[in-house]
Amino acid sequence: MISDVTSSCLKITESADGVVFSVHVQPRASKNQICGVHGDELKLRLTSPPVEGEANRLCIEFLAKLLRVPKSSVSITTGEKSRHKTVKVAGATAAEVLQLFKG
User: Fold this and answer.
1) What is the spatial distance between Cα 9 and Cα 61, in angstroms, rounded to a whole number?
2) Going residue by residue through the chain (103 aa), what tens digit of pLDDT does each one get?
3) Predicted pLDDT of residue 100
4) 3-state SS record for the chain
């Protein structure tokens, strides 16, 4: 069963194998952090530059650590060369993603 969860404009699609949501990445930040919701995307600030996939690797590592899933469970499905990405996290729930920015 696939369901959509919307909270504070963040849209999360949840299915039996995980969740899919949009992320807005701001590279070259002073520290890695979640900044809340930007439009309908989860906004992340990451320290790595947007070259040679470094920001993508850090995005995957950062989300995996926060959601306590293996890095192999996190994938960028669209937007690898853009600040606007769609991320799929296997083994996570919408409630876990919502907890990321609620503190």
Assistant:
1) 24
2) 444 455 557 889 998 899 999 999 999 999 999 988 888 999 999 999 989 999 999 999 999 999 999 999 999 999 999 999 999 999 999 988 888 766 5
3) 74
4) CCEEEEECCEEEEEECCEEEEEEEEECCCCCCEEEEEECCEEEEECCCCCCCCHHHHHHHHHHHHHHCCCHHHEEEEECCCCCEEEEEEECCCHHHHHHHHHC
- Tokens 């650590």 — which residue? 65
Domain positions in the chain are 3-102
Tell whether domain 3-102 is in CATH 3.30.1200.10: yes
Residue with tokens 């590592």: 61
User: What CA–CA distance (Å, rounded) separates 70 from 90?
Assistant: 9
